[in-house]
Amino acid sequence: MPALIHPDKTRSSLHALKPGEFCVLGSAANADIRLSADGVAPRHARIANDNGLYTIAPLSPKSAVFLNDQYLAPDGHTLVAGDKIQIGEWSLLFDDPNALPSADAAAPRNPFAKKHRDDSALTGYERLKRKIHAALIERMNLRGMESSSSAELRLRTDRFILSLIEENREELQKAGVQTETLRRDLLQLALGYGLLDDLLADPQISEIMCLGDGRIYVEKKGKITLNDRKFDDPAELRAIIERIVGPIGRRIDESSPIVDGRLPDGSRINAVVEPIALDGPTLDIRKFTANQLGIDDLIRGDSLTPQMATFLQLAVQHRQNIIVAGGTGSGKTTLLNILSSFIPADERIVTIEDSAELRLRQDHVVRLESRPQNIEGKGEIPIRVLVKNALRMRPDRIVVGECRGGEALDMLQAMNTGHDGSLTTLHANSPRDVISRLETMAMMSGLDLPQRAIRQQIASAVNIVCHQSRLPDGSRRIVSIAEIVPSPDGQDLALRDIYLFRRTGIQKETGRILGHYEYTGATPAFIETIRAAGIPFDESIFAPHVPS
């Protein structure tokens, strides 16, 4: 039966692992196979049963594992009878009478083999970088230096890299490699996010998309283009993914191949690895904007008019419940953040998000963030639980980053029970889809409510729908501001447009979408209430549009 043989001749049997299951090797008390020694991380490596084949892989790029005296890449490798595993001070032997007799025989059955480039296909620079990086991890205990300051860690790592470059000076000269280029790339690979560091620092890039074949796409000004950088080996991208998910207490492997999270600066990440990602690990990073945009920035960017901006400010200040809708990447969160800034400073606000992106400037703000499952598959706290809890926190307003499911019904009930002026976003491809999306999500709550009751909830809760769109030219615009209006018999709901963006053509030279904003002539109910109360406001926001 498969087992690990320790130096003291004791055996740790692996026969209990069913296909798809794995065990963890590390120094933690709850590790499946405990290896207590210096240089062994609490969760250092894992051995998995992959349909009868046993594979080993490190659980962190800082957790060096050596297989038959060779550095093990983050993707791991299939174990065969007689394999020697080195973890810290531990030397283990894999024993399985039914396993393949040699590493050469195992190669065709290695589930990761097709994801790696053959060493013979690597350039001299790629081969040298891989060699020095492996030596760096072997000689330098990065995990043991985690208590050091970032400046000290960077300095010591840089010294190690320089010494290793010097040792390989002759090979470096033969390959025609520039020392500073190799030094920079190795430093980024050891401490940062490799090729992604420069892209993350570029303020014009809003999204980074890495594919399994090494290609990197970026979004600039709403347009997606192929970047000139490329990963030499999927193992580099996998190492970066491991480096991202490790500090947030998540794992990513065959049994848990999808991870959502965020970088320390707030940027959102989504990573998918094998077997779900058929062509290798993929990573998507939606960058967090350091400079918070304001309503004037949207006006200058032609996302809306000054009249529309004044109207939205008026709606927030007079406690209208507003839904910001739109497609992926249309700017919903940015607009929600700007609308939230119009909330008076003397009100108590509770924000609820999957990934904390809202940055409200008011003093009295309580920020809540949902929590995914931990490594053991426990501890999840979804948005819906937080919405229910927020109602017990005496909020004047509730701001939900995005409604995706049954929490939509809880949000509607909150809007109907004294929390006027609440805000949220949802995905919808058009303004007309907003109502049907709300109905569908309310049904996901699990309560057996008739459609008419749900529509009555929507009609009495939601006042304004603001639809944001990313147009083909990459620009983001508010294409509609509308009011939800029930039919006379209460059986149906409709959207009555207040402001619209009307497209008139395309500028041939630049591909820019041409069009104009106009007021439709409809007067929302809350404006009539303001007028009846004698509250002054700028009536010019409803001036008829005169096309130029």
In CATH, what is the homologous superfamily of the largest domain? P-loop containing nucleotide triphosphate hydrolases
Task: Return Rg in Å.
Answer: 28 Å
Largest sheet, in brief, is: 9 strands, mixed
Give the mean pLDDT: 81
Basic shape: elongated
CATH topology type of the largest domain: Rossmann fold
Descriptive account of the structure:
There is one protein chain. By secondary structure, the chain is of the alpha+beta class. It has three domains: 3-114, Tumour Suppressor Smad4 (Sandwich), CATH 2.60.200.20; 120-286, Beta-Lactamase; 304-482, Rossmann fold, CATH 3.40.50.300. Helix content is 27%, strand content 25%. The strands form four sheets. Strands 20-19-21-22-18-23-24-25-26 form a nine-stranded mixed β-sheet, with helices on both faces. A six-stranded antiparallel β-sheet has the order 2-1-11-10-7-8. Strands 14-13-12-17-16-15 form a six-stranded antiparallel β-sheet. Helix 2 (124-139) packs across helix 3. The longest helix has 18 residues, at 150-167. The model is unreliable at 100-118 (pLDDT under 50).
Describe this protein with a few key phrases:
548 residues, alpha+beta, Tumour Suppressor Smad4, Beta-Lactamase, 9-stranded mixed beta sheet, 6-stranded antiparallel beta sheet, 26 strands, 27% helix
In summary, what is this structure?
The protein is of the alpha+beta class and 548 residues long. It has 15 helices and 26 strands. The longest helix is centred in the N-terminal third of the chain and has 18 residues.
